[in-house]
Amino acid sequence: MALTDVTYQNTPGNSEGFPLGVPTSYSWYGGSTGHTGSTPPSNFTAVTGWGQVYPQSGASNDSNPANVQIANFQTWVHLKTGGWSLVQDQATDPIAGSQFLADFSGNTNSAWSVTRQADGSAMGAAPLSGYNDHFCRARAAPILPERSMASMSRPI
Predict the structure, then answer these.
(1) What's the pLDDT tens digit per position in 99-148?
(2) What is each CA distance from 126 to 11, 16, 40, 96, 101, in whole angstroms?
(3) Would you tell me how many other CB atoms lie within 10 Å of the CB of residue 32?
(4) CA neighbours within 13 Å on the CB side: how many for 62?
(5) d(CA 90, CA 73)
(6) For every residue of the chain, which 3-state class applies, written as one string?
(7) Are 73 and 114 in contact (CB under 8 A)?
(8) Is residue 143 a contact partner of residue 87, using CB atoms and an 8 Å limit?
(9) End-to-end alpha-carbon separation of the chain, Å?
(10) How far does CA 2 lie from the centroid of its chain?
C-alpha cells in the first residue's frame, strides 16, 4: 500500500469502516483527530511509534483465526533544522503490545504474543470482538538535543 493511500485512509471521513466496540462519541471514532503540527512540550524526552488494529463494526466475524502482520514500521522525528531523523526501526527494535478492551475502559488488557518472522515482520493474533491490538516499540526512542523536535505529527 502506498503512503498516499495510508494517509487518505486515516484522514477523517475517508475510512469505509468504524472500529467495533468504540463509542461513537469518542473524538477519534471516525478517524484521526489530526494533531499535525503540535509543538512538543519543552520537557519532552522520548517518543514512540504505535498503532491499533480493530475489527470492523458491522462486519461478520470469521470463525477462522486470523493474524495481523506488521512490516517496515518506523518512527521519524521532524527536526527544528528542517530535516527528518529516523529514531525507531522495526529492523532493529522489536514490536510489542497488548490486546485492550476496545474503549480502553479500566485499562483492561491482556498480553499479545508477537512473533518475529523470517522476513523481519512481526505476526500476532488479530483482535477478538470487543478488543483491539495496540502495538508499539518495545522501548521508547530518546530525543537527543541534536535531534530537537520541531513538531509532532499524527500517526498514519
Answers:
(1) 998 888 898 899 888 899 999 899 998 887 788 898 888 776 666 554 55
(2) 23, 19, 33, 14, 13
(3) 18
(4) 8
(5) 5
(6) CCHHHHHHHCCCCCCCCCECCCCCCCCCCCCCCCCCCECCCCCCCEECCEEEECCECCCCCCCCCCEEEECCCEEEEEECCCCEEEEEECCCCCEEEEEEECCCHHHCEEECCEEECCCCCEEEECCCCCEEEEEEECCCEECCHHHCEEEECCCC
(7) no
(8) yes
(9) 12
(10) 17
Question: Cβ of 97: how many Cβ atoms within 10 Å?
Answer: 25
Q: Which candidate, 77, 25, 64, 69, places its Cα nearest to that of 51?
A: 69
Residue position matching grid coordinates 483492561: 108
- Tell me the one-letter amino acid at 117: Q
Average pLDDT over residues 50-63: 76
**pTM of the shown model:** 0.70
- pLDDT above 60: residue 149: no
Scored b (16 or more CB within 10 A) or e, 114-127 reads beeeeeeebebebb
